[in-house]
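assembly run, all chains below
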Amino acid sequence: MFVHLHCHSPFSFLDGASSIEQLVAQAALLGMPALALTDHHTIAGLPEFHKWAAVYGIRPISGAEVTLTDGSHLTLLCENAQGFTNLCTLLTHAHTRDGSRIAPRVDEADLFEHAAGLLVLSGCRKGRVAQAVLRRQPALARETVQRYRDHLGEAYYLEVQVNGYPEDLRLNRGLVELSEACRVPLVATGNVHYATPDQYPVHDILRCIQLRCDLQTPHPGRPLNRGQWLFSATEAQRRFAALPASARAHTLEIAERCQAVVTLGAPLHPEFQPPGGRSAAQYLRELVYAGAKARYGRMDRVLRERIDHELEIIERLGYADYFLVVWDIVRFARAHRIRCAGRGSAADSAVAYCLYITDVDAAGRGLLFERFMSLERAERPDIDIDFDSRRRDEVMDYVYRTYGSDHVARIATYQTFRGRSAIREIGGALGVPLSVLDQLAKRVPWMAHADQLEGLFDRLPELRPLAAYRQQLHWLWQLAAQVAGFPRHFGMHVGGLVISRRSLLSTTSLQPSAQGPWMTPYDKHGVEEVGLVKLDLLSLRTLSAVEDTVVLRERSGQALDYDRIPLNDAATFRRLASGETVGVFQLESPAQRVLQSRLKPDRLEDIVASVALIRPGPIQGNMVDPFLARRRGQAPTTYLHPKLEPILGKTYGVVLFQEQVIEIATAIAQFTPGEADQLRRVMSKARSHREMEEIGRHFLEKATACGVEPEVAQTIFSYIQGYASYGFCEAHAAAFGTTAYKTAYLAEHYPAAFYAAILNQYPMGYYPVHVVCSAAKRRGIRLLPVDVNESEWNCHTPDERSIRLGLRLVKGFPERAGVHLMEEREARGRFHSVLDWLRRVPDIDRLTAERCIRVGALDALLPSRRVGLWQLPVWIGLRESAGPVGFDLDVPTDAVSPALGRHERDLELSLAVRLADEYQLLGVGLSGHWLELFRADLERRGCLTTAEVAGLADGVQVRTAGLVVRPHRPPTRSGRTVVFFSLEDETGWVDATAFQAVYQRCGGVLFTPYGRLVEIQGTVQRRDASIAQVNVTDIRPLTR
Amino acid sequence: MTRLVRRAIRMCERTPSAGPWVFEDQGRRYQVVEVIDTWAESGAWWAGEADRRMWRVLASEGAVLDLEQSGDDWFVYRVWD
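ok done. output:
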C-alpha cells in the first residue's frame, strides 16, 4: 500500500494538470486510503479537496509546498488543527516581505516557531538537502538534516522521489545515507502534478506558459518526462525497489497521523456587540419593530406575524448577529449619505426591509421568506448590497475598523482559462503565429468556454479566413478543453468579504491582492464551505448616477427625494413603453426596449417581470412570447403539467424565477433538498456545461419514475436547462425592478440631470457615450461642448434643457489637472487665451492640450482647431521658457481681419477629421455625425434615415445605414447564432437582427474593424405595435 | 569532452530489470560494467515522438556512453571521451 503525500492541483497555478476531482478519483480508484494536497504556497484548493475526498471516501490530508527565503522547497503536512493554524500563519507571514505577493517566502525561524502540529518533509529536488547532495556538499546536507531533526524531532522526514530524472540514483543513495547517519526516517513521494500519464502534455504546456517559452524551447523548468503522475502502489514498489521498504511504509504511517483539519459547514458567524447588555436577538427585534413603524406607519396582525416568523427563523439558525452586522453597515452608509440598496434573495425578507437593508417590501409583494432562509435548508444567508461606486471603499474601511483586520478579509476569485485567454496562452506555447492567435482571439466571443472552441470554426463565419490553420490548431483545441476552468491566477472578488468571530488564521491564510486589500485565498464557494459567512458590498455606478442626479437637481434649487419616488407614475410607464430607455437600469438593451414597447407596462410588477424575462434563462426556455401574450390577455394561460399551476400561476404559466425552477424540480421529479441544492449550485455556475447535462439525466430518470411522460419531462427540463446560464430569483428581480423603475422616473422627469449623471459615471451601462448623448438630444436637450472656460470636471446642467460636457470625458485628461483648472478659474477668472490657460494650469501636458484642441474645448479661444494644433508647440515652448511679455504669439479672438477670417475658414479641419477626433477622444461627435458624410450618396441609393425607418409599417422592405452599436451574439434557445445590433445615424437609431443564415453569409463583418459603419437591407418588424426593428437580409460595410 | 553520436546499436542481452547488459556497436561487443545514471525523457509529443529512456553506462574497455532506448530500438546517443 502507498499514499501520495506530495501532490499539486491546478491551484499550484500553471503547475497542476489535473482537476482536484481527477486526483481524488484516481487515488480512490487505486484503493489508497488517503491523499495529501500540497499546492505551492496556498490552501485555496482545500475546501474543494475535502468535498471530493468525502464523495470518494478517502481521507484528505491538508498541506502546502512552501519556498524558504533561500529559494529551497519544503513540503508541509497538517497533523491536526494546531498544525493547520500554523500553516495558515506561515503562509500569511510569507506574504509580508516586500515583493512577496508574487513570490512569497517562508522564513526558517518562523517555521520552527510555528511547527507544532506540522509534519515537515525535506522536499523535492529543490529542497535544500537534495540540492546539497546533488552539489556534492555532504557537510551542508548533514548540517541541515541535523538542524531540522533537532528542531522538529519526529515530525521531520527525508523525502525521496524516483521520477526518472538524471542523478536520481546518486541523490537517493545520499539521502539513504543521511537517513541512517542522522536517524531521520525516509518517506517516498511522487511529486504528483497530474492524475494519469496521458495528462503530461497539459503539464508541459502549462509550464511553458509560466516560463514564457514555447514547446520548441528546452527549459530546465519544464518537466523532462511523464513520470509525475498519481501512480499506484504497485508502481511505487517498482520505482522504490532499490530503496528501504520503510520509505513506502512511512507514507501510511504519516497518513494515519494526519487528521482532516478543514471542517466543512460548521458556521463561523460574525459577532455583534449590542449596546446596553442586550442580547443580539433582543436588539435585532427592537430595531426591526422600529423600522417597521417607520416603513409602514402601523403594523397589522398579518405584518406582525410575518416579522415574528422571520425573526424566529433568524434566531433559531443563529444569524441575529449577522443581520445586526449588515444593519450596522447600512446604517453607516445612510448616515454618511452613501446611497445603497440590497439586492438578491435578501429582498425576500421583511426584516431586511424594516432594517433598510433592502428597498423591496417583501411582505407587501408576498415574497416567501423561506426562499431566502429556511430551517429545513439551514443555509447561510448571503446578503448583497450595492453602494455608490465612488464611496463603496469608505464602507469597506468602516468594516475593517469596526471588526479588526484579523477578523475581516476580502474574498478571492480565480481567473480561469476561458476561450480567449486559452487561445492566446496555449497557442503561444504551441508556437502558433501571433498574428493568427490575435485574429482568432479577437473573433471568438468573449464568453466562449475553453472546452467549446473547436466547434466555433463551423459556427462563426468570421473565423473562416483562419480555416487554413485548422490542422495546426488541433492541439490547441485539445489542450484548451482540458484546462477549461483551471484557475489561472488569483483575483479579488469585487465586493465579497468575510467577517469572522474568531481570528481568521484558524480557518484560512491571508494574502495581499493586486489591488492592496488582504484576502483569503478561498473564493465565494470555498468560504461558504468552510463555514465563513460572507457579505457582498458591491459598487454600482447606477447608484452613483442616482446620487449625481439628486445633487444636480439640488444645485438648481430643486429638491429630489429618491426614496419617496411614487411607484405608480403613468408618465414613467409611458416612457418605458416608448422604448426610449437609454440609461435606465436594466431596461436599456435592445431586447428590453422592444420588450417594453410590446408589454406596455402599467405597474411595477411588469417591470419586475421584465428584468427577469430578458435573461438567457427565459430566452432559451422560450418564455418571452408566451408571457407577453398571456399578460396582455391575448392567449390563455396553460400548464404542461397540473403540478406547475401553483408554482407558475403568478407569472402566467411562464418560468421566470430561479425559485420556480427549484420548486418544479421538487414537484415534478421529487428532488430531495440536497438534490435541489445541487441544482441551484449548478445553475449558478457557468464554467462547464457538463454538470448541467448530468443533472438533466438525473431529472429525467426521476420524473419518469414519478409517472411524468418522458416528452413532458424533457420539455420541463429544457426550462431548467435554460437557467444553467442565469436566471434571477424573484427577490433579486424585485430589487432590480424597483431601481429600474426609479431610474426610468428620473429619465422621464429630469432628463438633463439624469443623462449628465450617466455620462459622469462612464464607463457604465450598455451603450457608449455617443448613444447616451443622442438619447439626450432626442429629448430636446442641448449638448454644450467641453469648454475650458465653462466646463467642470463632471458634466453638469446649466439649465433644465442643456448639458455642459465635462472635462472628464476628454480621453486621458488627468483629474488633478481638471481640479486645478477649476480652482484657477475660480480664483483668477476665465482664461483669455490658450497660452494663458497653459501657463495657469501647468498640469496640462502637451498631449492633453492637443486633445483638448481636437475636441473643441478651446474653440472659443481659437480661430480654428488647425491653427491651434499648429501653434501648440510654440505655446508649450513659451510656457516652458516663460518667454518675455509682448512676444505672445496668441492669435487674438477679438480682432480678426476679414482676410484672416477667410483664411481661417480655409484652415479649419474637415468635418471628417473633426468627427474622427471627437469620436476617438470624446466618445461623441459634436461637429456632426459620421453619417452626414455619406448622406448624399445614401439618398441617391434609396437609403432611409433611421428616423424614417422608425415610422414605417410592419413588413416594409427597407435600406438604411448607420454607425454599428453593440453587436452581440447572446445564447439562444435553438443554439443557432443570432446577431443583435443597433444602427445610429444623425436622426436617431434603429435596432436590427441578423439570423443565422444572414450572419453566416455577410454578418461576420460586424465583429471586425471593417464593420463600424454599415448599410443594411431588410424588412421592418413591429410585433404587437412595438418600436420598429429591421430583420436584416444583407449587410455591407459603408464605403465612400 | 563529449560527442553526440546517435548511432543505432544492437542490444544483445538485458538485465533482469530490463536495463542494458551486452550490446554490439560497429561490430564490437561491449558489456555494461556499471549503470552510472538513468533517466526518462519525453520526446516532442506534439509531433508524435515517442518517449525514451537514457542510460549512462560505464562499458567494458572503460568507455562511458549515453545509451538511448526508444521502444525496442537502442542507440549510442553520446560518447564521453
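Chain A touches chain B at residues 164-170, 200-201, 204, 215, 223-227, 430, 475 (CB under 8 Å).

The two ends of chain A are 77 Å apart (CA to CA).

not gonna interpret more than that til we talk
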